[in-house]
What we know:
The chain is mainly α. The chain has helices spanning about 5-20, 25-35, 35-55, 55-80, 105-110, 120-125, 135-145, 155-165; strands at about 95-100, 130-135. About 65% of the residues lie in helices and about 5% in strands. Zinc ion (ZN) binds near residues 88, 90 and 136.
Amino acid sequence: MYSKEHRLEKQxxxxxxxxxxxAEELKAAAERVKGTEEQREIWxxxxxQWRRQNPEANLRIQRKADLKxxxxxxxxAFEKLGNTCVRxxxxxxxxxxxxxxxxxxxxxxxxxxxxxxxxxxxxxxxSAPFQLLCPTCNWIKRVENKEVRQPKSDSRITTSARSTDxxxxxx
Length: 171
Ligand SMILES: [Zn+2]
């Protein structure tokens, strides 16, 4: 029995062959649908009119389109960065975070405006200063770079001491 992927692949293959065989007809049909420049201007005006008459619905549509564009750009940027945490290989894009390889201060960050919607465009232009990290590795990097407040004593010792205390209560 064929898998779903296999069937879909077959289907795409058949569609591709159909488009090849009927290239001329399909092109002519597309031209007919597009209409004349005059017709297109009428349609554009109708669209503008509808937008003026339905500002709220129009806003909803615009927002949805913006969001779609945002996610597409983000996905492309993640793809460029390898879609994986560079330290441990974790690859669930839902939690991966963009990290500046060389740490930058808040002022620099504001100046670059990297951390707004421009971040994805910036990465697509030049991904070299960036990498993806999972939340755990990102946190470890911050601790290593002393970007987080350090406890006075080593927290690992405190943790192991506490577990030893727990085990020793039977005595
Ligand atoms: Zn990681």
